[in-house]
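Propose amino acids for all 218 sites.
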């Protein structure tokens, strides 16, 4: 496990500060992702730059491996916000640029400004409105990072499949995401070492094509 996800707004900045205090300087095999520009108005270039500089300070680093535009600001052209990230990318402060909660059309617009390495959208077995974005990311070799990967109801087929695999429904949900596309990297939240180990155990599950199709429901 070498991928940590945080954001400028998480716990009022304490999340970035704690990660920086615990792990900086970051080892070369660690991918740390953070985000900025969540609130309306924060996609303006001057505000986004301010949030970026705060993230650098909190994380105790001058290089961020992956930085997402947290939301497309409804009052700011996407290209203006992304141009700020391009400036930092070109200067070496951001290694890879990402987007969050975006459509295929928005990804294409952003890619006209700067290469997009990752897309983080709300997606799981129950929340499927971004199926087309997953497919697009697979075709274009863009990482798709589903947040809230474990949300949604536990229905009868999921319970039965989990029972047959000797797994929890949550582990099957993660296994489904991993089989959905080779470009999918889920980011399940963890509250304890036990929770972390349970999530990691999903890596050892290989759903059959028929079980995947049953869960997929398309």
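Proposal:
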């Amino acid at each position: 496990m070498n991928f940590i996800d945080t954001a400028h707004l998480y716990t009022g900045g304490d999340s970035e500060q704690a990660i920086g205090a615990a792990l900086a300087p970051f080892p070369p095999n660690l991918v740390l992702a953070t985000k900025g520009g969540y609130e309306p108005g924060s996609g303006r270039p001057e505000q986004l730059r301010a949030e970026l500089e705060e993230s650098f300070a909190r994380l105790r680093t001058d290089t961020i491996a992956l930085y997402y535009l947290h939301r497309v600001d409804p009052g700011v052209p996407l290209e203006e916000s992304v141009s700020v990230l391009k400036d930092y990318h070109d200067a070496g402060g951001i290694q890879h640029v990402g987007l969050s909660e975006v459509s295929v059309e928005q990804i294409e617009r952003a890619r006209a400004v700067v290469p997009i390495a990752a897309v983080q959208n709300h997606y799981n077995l129950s929340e499927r409105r971004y199926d087309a974005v997953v497919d697009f990311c697979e075709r274009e070799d863009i990482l798709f990072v589903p947040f809230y990967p474990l949300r949604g109801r536990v229905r009868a087929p999921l319970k039965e499949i989990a029972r047959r695999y000797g797994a929890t429904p949550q582990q099957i949900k993660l296994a489904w995401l991993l089989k959905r596309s080779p470009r999918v990297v889920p980011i399940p939240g963890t509250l304890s070492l036990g929770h972390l180990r349970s999530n990691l155990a999903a890596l050892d599950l290989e759903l059959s094509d028929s079980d995947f199709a049953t869960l997929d429901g398309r």
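The mean pLDDT is 96. Strands lie at 3-5, 31-36, 64-69, 94-100, 116-122, 143-147.
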